[in-house]
Amino acid sequence: MSKTPAIEINDLTVAYQFKPVLWDIDLIVPEGVMMAIVGPNGAGKSTLIKSILGIVKPLAGSVKILGKQYRNVRLEVGYVPQKGTVDWDFPTTVKDVVLMGTYGKLGWIKRPGKREKALAEEAINKVGLGDLSHRQISRLSGGQQQRVFLARALVQDAAVYFMDEPFQGVDATTEKAIVNILKELRRRNKTVVVVHHDLQTVTDYFDWVTLLNVKKIASGPCGEVFNEENLERTYGVKFTLAIDQ
Amino acid sequence: MTGVQIEIQVIAALVAVSCAIPGVFLVLRKMAMISDAISHAILPGIVIGFLLTGSLNSPFLIILAAITGVVTVALVELLNKTKLVKEDAAIGLVFPMMFSIGVILISKNAGNIHIDTDTVLLGELAFAPFNRLQIAGVDLGPQGAWVMGIIFLLNLVFVVVFFKELKLSTFDAGLAASLGFFPGMVHYALMGIVSITTVGAFDSVGAILVVALMIGPAATAYLITDNLKLMLIYAAAIGIVSAVAGYWTANLLDVSIAGSMATMVGVLFLAVYLFAPAKGLWSIHRRRERQKSEFAQMTLVMHINNHSGMHDDIEERKINHLKRHFLWDDAFIAKVVTRALSAGLLTEKEGVLSLTGKGKRFIEASDALFTSKYHPGFEALRKEFVIFTDG
Question: Right CATH number for B282-385 from 2.10.70, 1.10.287, 1.10.10, 1.10.1740?
Answer without folding.
Answer: 1.10.10
